[in-house]
Amino acid sequence: MNSTNQHDERIARMTFASVYPHYVTKVEKKGRTKEELHQLVEWLTGYNEEAIQKLLEEKVTFKQFFQGAELNRNAHLIRGTICGYRVEEITNPLTQQVRYLDKLVDELAKGRKMETILRTA
Question: How far is CA 86 from the centre of its chain?
Answer without folding.
Answer: 15
